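wait is this the right file?? whatever heres the structure
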């Protein structure tokens, strides 16, 4: 956004037609897309939330089905609601949004079906309307951030269906993004699909994933599987959609070094995160890729509103 206009960086929701994510990436997607924040506003709100919510509850990790989160789910809920009201919206504002041109979705798992579920700001032909008509912004944020074993599941709807995050299998939501985009195009064009996609941006959370703070072998193994799966998903998508990349319509950004041992709850280490990201984007290869991405965004935006979509990975 800064490269588009360094004097007055635009908001992502003004350039991207769809933004989606999972885990804390889903939370960021909602802040950028549904709440219409600038990147600077999002960084401030996210770091404030981390300082408030990523605080240990003092309870031990319980890896069985009756999960007790090690972090305070109540504080996370309060912090999310504070962000919503800080944007001038009611605390229980629905995620559903019929006014904004930017569509938003976040991913979670249903504990009842063990299948991924999309909470969306829009109606889609693939989804029944019960969740989109009742899910609030804060509930969607809580569901996608309900990372076992850090936070407890959340119950949503009259049947109290329980949801947790998509830590295993869908923490890189690029394939879900692709499906959601295709459905949105099909719906908006009388059932006829055509190659409107101009720019797809995939943002990772850093290569090699994270290491747990506690010495918990099973948790360590789980986190390593998450790390491998995100990279494998990205590689598979790139191979299956080689034309997108060759034509300059797909860009994957993922910090390669420096985030290996920084966990989601270690917000005090934000200077290390910033330094690692700065080092990554200053490399010649990434700098050139960012330049091409900006050219793709700006050239199409001036001519017509052609679809740009962004997906933000779990951390």
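ok assuming it is, sequence goes like this
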């Amino acid at each position: 956004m800064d490269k588009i206009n360094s004097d007055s960086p635009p908001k992502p929701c003004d350039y991207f037609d769809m933004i989606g994510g999972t885990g804390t990436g889903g939370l960021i997607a909602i802040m950028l897309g549904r709440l219409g924040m600038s990147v600077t506003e999002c960084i401030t709100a996210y770091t404030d939330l981390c300082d408030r919510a990523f605080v240990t509850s003092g309870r031990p990790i319980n890896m069985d089905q009756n999960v007790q989160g090690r972090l305070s789910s109540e504080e996370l809920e309060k912090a999310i609601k504070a962000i919503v009201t800080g944007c001038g919206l009611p605390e229980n504002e629905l995620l559903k949004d019929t006014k904004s041109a930017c569509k938003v979705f976040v991913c979670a798992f249903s504990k009842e079906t063990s299948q991924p579920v999309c909470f969306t700001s829009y109606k889609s032909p693939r989804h029944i309307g019960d969740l989109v008509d009742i899910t609030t912004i804060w509930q969607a944020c809580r569901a996608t951030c309900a990372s076992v074993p850090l936070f407890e599941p959340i119950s949503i709807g009259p049947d109290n269906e329980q949801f947790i995050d998509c830590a295993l299998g869908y923490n890189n939501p690029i394939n879900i993004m692709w499906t959601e985009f295709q459905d949105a195009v099909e719906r908006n064009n009388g059932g006829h699909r055509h190659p409107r996609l101009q720019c797809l941006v995939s943002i990772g959370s850093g290569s090699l994933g994270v290491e747990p703070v506690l010495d918990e072998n099973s948790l360590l193994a789980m986190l390593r599987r998450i790390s491998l799966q995100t990279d494998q998903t990205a590689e598979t998508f790139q191979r299956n959609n080689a034309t997108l990349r060759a034509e300059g319509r797909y860009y994957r950004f993922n910090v390669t070094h420096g985030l290996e041992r920084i966990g989601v709850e270690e917000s005090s280490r934000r200077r290390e995160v910033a330094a690692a990201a700065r080092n990554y984007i200053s490399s010649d290869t990434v700098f050139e890729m960012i330049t091409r991405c900006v050219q793709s965004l700006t050239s199409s935006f001036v001519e017509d509103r052609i679809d740009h979509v962004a997906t933000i990975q779990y951390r």
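Residues 60-67, 209-216 have pLDDT under 50 and may be disordered. so i think its the right one actually
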